[in-house]
């Protein structure tokens, strides 16, 4: 595609995103926006997906669900939220909401810290009263992707507390864990915090902090050795709430590609690498680490 053509489509898609985010209460139709972009529906949807990384209808649906999550946190009734999001009944909305976020709409009001964001390859999210930000694909026809590689990690010492099978309780666990580690003589550095996911059924999620050998200790918080070995490591950039759906999809594509099997004798790791600027959770960087074994070992 010629440079001039791409730049022209970028301007059209930018205008589309600006209009779309401000008209979620209306019937947002691809035909209408294609006409506004002076294009056929087929060419419009193809260019939109190439530049944003997701289909037009999927983008509209995701933004409406994110807005619905915010309104539920504000105490809006489920039925009104469902109708405003374009669903014909509360039942169909609840099914879609649970499928997208992994929890029922009735739980949202009890999670005041939750941002209610879904994975977005273009960084576009619904925000109340804020002009949203987004980015377009660097190459026409390819969406932004996160890199995955297999690395050998060394054994590491860590401090941790008992985990929970209810991942929605993790923020509360992190809060209590954060207070406990204030007693450390030397404060942990950036990149030393992680959540450890055991291979139990169901898995247990536990806050942890890496420490240099046995020089750190806190009464009541045992030290453990995190086993080393081969891990597939993916760098994920985005808010923590979006990690779950992304990681599940990543696992399916990675292990289906052949060559590696999951190693159920070691834990998975959510390894946090930075503290993003205030108000910019999209810049949170996390290493997603799954233990693996080579398929050749079983042949």
Description:
The chain is built from 8 helices and 9 strands. The chain has 299 residues and is an alpha+beta fold. It has 2 domains: 3-110, Orthogonal Bundle (Arc Repressor Mutant, subunit A); 148-298, Regulatory factor, effector binding domain (Multidrug-efflux Transporter 1 Regulator Bmrr, Chain A), CATH 3.20.80.10. The model is unreliable at 138-146 (pLDDT under 50).
Lay out the secondary structure.
Layout (H helix, E strand, L loop, with lengths): L2 H19 L8 H7 L4 H12 L3 H18 L4 H7 L5 H12 L46 E6 L2 E5 L9 H11 L12 E5 L7 E6 L12 E4 L2 E9 L5 H14 L3 E3 L5 E5 L12 E10 L5
Antiparallel strand pairs: 1-6, 2-4, 2-5, 3-4, 3-8, 6-9, 7-9, 8-9
Concise structural overview:
With 299 residues, this protein is an alpha+beta fold.
> What is the share of helical residues?
25-40%
Mean pLDDT comes to: 83
Q: Return the CATH class of the largest domain.
A: Alpha Beta
Number of separate strands: 9
For the report, how would you describe the main beta sheet? 9 strands, antiparallel
Give start-end ranges of low-pLDDT stretches: 138-146
CATH topology grouping of the largest domain: Multidrug-efflux Transporter 1 Regulator Bmrr, Chain A
Dominant shape: globular
Backbone CA Rg:
22 Å
Q: Can you tell me the number of structural domains?
A: 2
Tell me the CATH superfamily of the largest domain: Regulatory factor, effector binding domain
What is the string of SSEs from the N terminus onward? HHHHHHEEHEEEEHEEE
Structural class: alpha+beta
With helices defined by DSSP (H or I, 4 residues minimum), what is the helix count?
8
**Beta-strand content estimate:** 15-25%
CATH architecture of the largest domain: Alpha-Beta Barrel
The N- to C-terminal Cα distance equals 46 Å
């Amino acid at each position: 595609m010629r440079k001039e053509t791409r730049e022209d489509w970028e301007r059209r898609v930018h205008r589309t995103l600006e209009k779309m985010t401000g008209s979620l209460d209306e019937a947002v139709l691809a035909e209408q926006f294609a006409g506004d972009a002076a294009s056929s529906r087929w060419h419009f949807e193809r260019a939109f997906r190439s530049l944003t990384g997701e289909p037009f209808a999927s983008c509209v649906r995701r933004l409406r669900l994110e807005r619905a999550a915010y309104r539920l946190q504000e105490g809006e009734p489920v039925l009104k939220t469902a109708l405003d999001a374009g669903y014909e009944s509360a039942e169909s909305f609840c099914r879609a909401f649970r499928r997208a976020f992994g929890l029922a709409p009735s739980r949202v009001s009890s999670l005041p810290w939750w941002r209610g964001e879904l994975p977005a390859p273009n960084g576009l999210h619904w925000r109340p009263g804020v002009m949203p930000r987004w980015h377009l694909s660097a190459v026409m026809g390819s969406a932004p992707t996160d890199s995955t590689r297999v690395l050998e990690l060394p054994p590491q010492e860590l401090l941790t507390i008992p985990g929970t099978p209810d991942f929605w309780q993790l923020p509360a666990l992190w809060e209590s864990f954060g207070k406990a580690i204030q007693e450390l003589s030397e404060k942990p550095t950036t990149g030393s915090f992680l959540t450890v996911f055991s291979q139990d059924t169901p898995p247990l999620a536990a806050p942890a902090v890496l420490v240099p050998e046995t020089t750190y200790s806190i009464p009541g918080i045992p030290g453990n050795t995190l086993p080393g070995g081969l891990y597939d490591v993916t760098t994920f950039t985005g808010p923590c709430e979006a990690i779950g759906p992304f990681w599940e999809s990543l696992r399916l594509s990675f292990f289906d590609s052949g060559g590696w099997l999951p190693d159920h004798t070691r834990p998975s790791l959510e390894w946090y690498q930075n503290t993003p600027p205030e108000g910019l959770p999209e810049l949170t960087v996390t290493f997603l680490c799954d233990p693996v074994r080579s398929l050749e070992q079983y042949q």
